[in-house]
Structures are given as structure tokens and as C-alpha cells.
Amino acid sequence: MAPRLAIEGLSVGYGRRRIIEDLTLPAISGGGVTALIGPNAAGKTTLLRALAGLVPARGSIRLDDTELTGLSVAGHARHVTYMPQALPQRVALTVFEATLSALMSARDETLSTAGAQARAFATLERLGIADLALRGLDELSGGQRQLASLAQSIVREPTVLLLDEPTSALDIHHQMRVMQLVEELARERSIIVIIVLHDIAQAARYARRIVVLERGAVAADGPPGAAITPETLARVYRVEARVERCSQGFLQVIVDRAV
Ligand SMILES: Nc1ncnc2c1ncn2[C@@H]1O[C@H](COP(=O)(O)OP(=O)(O)O)[C@@H](O)[C@H]1O
Ligand SMILES: [Mg+2]
């Protein structure tokens, strides 16, 4: 059965400053992509970091029968993988070594060294970066580094995959490639994927569900057609926009002006 992630009464902040207050979401289920969108500083990164156990949170985050809020960072890491927005990779590792060590740190004891190496390489191939395997992380372009970081996240085969703007440095080919791959992984492995995106049309195309966050609260939540409306865009993003379907039935957002 597909895993389910339930968030109830979640509050997260930094010091005294509360960013997310009493957030509750209908369970997010595996098998498809959930996009998290919203204006700058809405709290998207803070929410993902709370789900990954990287910032203290009050309330409940339940993955099926496991309460995640009580777990250690390592306990979280067994279920949840988080790919951060900023990539601090000044490490002297090759892309292959970094992918392999991400896999090893997930401590899957049933995996042999040869098995781990094969899985790491297969992940690079699937992302189309096998040719970068022996390059140092510190000699990659921003986009290449983003793909290498994504490889480190997906190689661990988590139940919950959290991706914070994973396509922000990528050209359009690689953006589509990453979105297609992430959507395939969600279906194939029946995992939960929550992805922060700025491109609303891309979110609408690949996500089954879109959660719109505004000042730490849920402004809209549902299938793309329900969550993305001119009213929501006006209220949350302060733009006058049209939401129309293209010849293939996908939602397009045409922004006419800022208001
Ligand atoms: N480490 C931090 N310490 C204090 N405040 C932070 C920290 N990280 C983020 N914030 C604040 O929390 C709010 C939400 O930030 P963030 O979750 O990064 O938003 P988003 O990802 O939606 O752009 C912002 O006002 C930001 O200034
Ligand atoms: Mg962010």
C-alpha cells in the first residue's frame, strides 16, 4: 500500500519567531508528486526542513504508523531524504563517490559493495550524468551540481523524498528530465515526493496535488485545477493572471501584471 504522511498541528519557528503555526494537511500519499508552491519567504523551505527533522517542530508528523517528530536525525534519515536549496559542496569527492557515500550513509546493511556501486552508477545513468561520474563536485557548473545532489538524494531510495527547488539552476531540457524522472520514481516506488517549485505550470503538469503556502499557512490545496485559480494567484502572489488549458489539456498560467 502507498505510504501516507499526515501533518497535524505543526508549528515551526526560529528562536521566538514562529514561521509555521498550527499547520494541518490532509494526508499526502505516495505514488505521485505533491508540489509545494508559494511566494518568497512563505515558509516552504522551513516546512521541508521540519519534515526532514532538521529544525525543531511541535505537533505531529506521522508516516503511516511512525511518529517522526520524536525521532533522531538518523532516525529521520531512514525514512526521509531532503535535498536542500543551497548546495554546499566544496568537498573533494567525485560525483560517483558522493553518490556512493550518500547511499552508504543510509546504512542499508543488506547491500554488498558491488551492489552499492551498481546502484550508484545506475542512478547517475538515470539522471543522464554518468559522464560526470569521475569529475570532482568542486569543478561542476551550478546545474551539474544540482543534478549530482539529486543523485545523492534518490540513490537512497527513501520513502519520503523532499526536493527544495531542484531545478532552479537547470536548462529546460534538464528541468523536464528531472521532473519526468521524479514523477516516474514516485509511481514506480510508490514513494511520497514533495517538491518546491517556482514554475506553476510545471507544478501543474507533473504534480497530482498542489499545496500553496502563504505566510506559513495553507492558502490552497488540491489537484492543480482546483489549487491554481486566478483568485488564488491574485491573493497569494499579487498578480493578475489567467489560467488556461493548452491544446493538450495542461494548465498554463499567463500573468498579465503585478497588482
Ligand atoms: N535559519 C533561519 N533563522 C531565522 N529565520 C529564518 C531562517 N530561515 C528562514 N527564516 C525566515 O523564515 C521565513 C520563511 O523562510 P523560508 O522557509 O526559507 O521561505 P521560502 O522557502 O518559502 O522562501 C522567512 O521570513 C525567513 O527570513
Ligand atoms: Mg525556500
Q: Which tags fit this structure?
A:
single chain; 259 residues; alpha/beta; Rossmann fold; 2 domains; 12 strands; globular; binds adenosine-5'-diphosphate; binds magnesium ion
Order of helices and strands: EEEHEEHEHHHEHEHEEHHEE
CATH topology of the largest domain, what is it called?
Rossmann fold
Helix coverage percent of residues? 25-40%
Shape assignment: globular
Kindly report the average pLDDT value. 94
Assigned CATH superfamily of the largest domain: P-loop containing nucleotide triphosphate hydrolases
**Strand fraction band?**
25-35%
| CATH 2nd-level architecture of the largest domain | 3-Layer(aba) Sandwich
Tally of DSSP β-strands? 12
Can you tell me the residue ranges where pLDDT is under 50 for at least 5 consecutive residues?
none
Strand line-up in the sheet with most strands: 6-7-8-3-9-10
How many domains, in number, for the residues? 2
Characterize the biggest β-sheet: 6 strands, mixed
Structural class designation: alpha/beta
Explain how this protein is built.
This protein has 259 residues and is α/β, with parallel strands linked by helices. It has two domains: 146 residues, Rossmann fold; 68 residues, no CATH class. The chain contains nine helices and twelve strands. Strands 6-7-8-3-9-10 form a six-stranded mixed sheet, sandwiched between helices. A hairpin with a 2-residue loop joins strand 4 and strand 5. Helix 3 packs across helix 4 and helix 3 runs parallel beside helix 5. Adenosine-5'-diphosphate binds next to helix 1.
